[in-house]
């Protein structure tokens, strides 16, 4: 058993007969009344996100997890296939377990959290950012750069990302996997 002081991002807990991963949390200590922890939980079975507030000192049941490095092999419909980089064992996971399936490029290494009691994969932690090539982008209009104007661009995985006007087809860009937003252009 853990308490609310042990809450951190990525912690897996049992809550309402399901296993949830803590996506965000905030410890709040108001001037009046007891402290509490406001959390955003994502179900690892359905992918549904819910907000919940735990009172300070509330006991939560955590789930023991192990983290293993897996390499993304390919996608087939809603199933994504991964290979353990140590044992070469292959697993397939549903699309709703992944945080940003549209940004996953073949050969990318990810961290898979596995429940130690049942040996079932719980969640997939993507790298903080990925570098992808732009396959389609509308040409930028000259003189339209007075503000932070953006345009939609398609990257090699098929995902659509808003980028600045100076990005062209063939450019490699760095994308934040948590928000799916453009970070910078990568020079080679």
Automatic annotation (TrEMBL):
It is found in: Cytoplasm. One of its GO terms (biological process) is peptide biosynthetic process. SUPFAM superfamilies: Nucleic acid-binding proteins (SSF50249), Translation proteins SH3-like domain (SSF50104). SMART domains: EFP (SM01185), Elong-fact-P_C (SM00841). Pfam families: EFP, EFP_N, Elong-fact-P_C. PROSITE patterns: EFP. Pathway: Protein biosynthesis; polypeptide chain elongation. InterPro entries: Elong-fact-P_C, NA-bd_OB-fold, Rib_uL2_dom2, Transl_elong_fac_P/YeiP, Transl_elong_KOW-like, Transl_elong_P/YeiP_cen, Transl_elong_P/YeiP_CS, Transl_elongation_fac_P. Residues 130-185 form the Elongation factor P C-terminal domain. One of its GO terms (molecular function) is translation elongation factor activity. GO terms for cellular component: cytosol. Residues 67-122 form the Translation elongation factor P/YeiP central domain. Keywords: Cytoplasm, Elongation factor, Protein biosynthesis. Involved in peptide bond synthesis. Stimulates efficient translation and peptide-bond synthesis on native or reconstituted 70S ribosomes in vitro. Probably functions indirectly by altering the affinity of the ribosome for aminoacyl-tRNA, thus increasing their reactivity as acceptors for peptidyl transferase. Belongs to the elongation factor P family. This is Elongation factor P.
């Amino acid at each position: 058993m853990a308490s609310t002081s042990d809450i951190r991002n990525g912690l897996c807990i049992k809550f309402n007969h399901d296993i949830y991963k803590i996506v965000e949390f905030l410890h709040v200590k108001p001037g009046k009344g007891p402290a509490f922890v406001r959390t955003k939980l994502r179900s690892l079975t359905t992918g549904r996100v819910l907000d919940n507030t735990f009172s300070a000192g509330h006991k939560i049941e955590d789930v023991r997890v192990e983290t293993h490095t897996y390499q993304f092999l390919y996608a087939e419909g809603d199933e994504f296939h991964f290979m353990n980089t140590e044992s070469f064992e292959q697993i397939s996971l549903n699309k709703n377990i992944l945080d940003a399936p549209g940004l996953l490029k073949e050969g990318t290494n990810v961290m898979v959290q596995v429940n130690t009691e049942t040996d079932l994969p719980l969640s997939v932690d993507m790298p903080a950012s990925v570098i992808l090539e732009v396959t389609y982008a509308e040409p930028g209009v000259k003189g339209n750069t007075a503000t932070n104007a953006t345009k939609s661009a398609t990257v090699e995985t098929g995902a659509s990302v808003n980028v600045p006007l100076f990005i062209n087809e063939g450019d490699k860009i760095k994308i934040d996997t948590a928000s799916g937003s453009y970070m910078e252009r990568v020079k080679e």
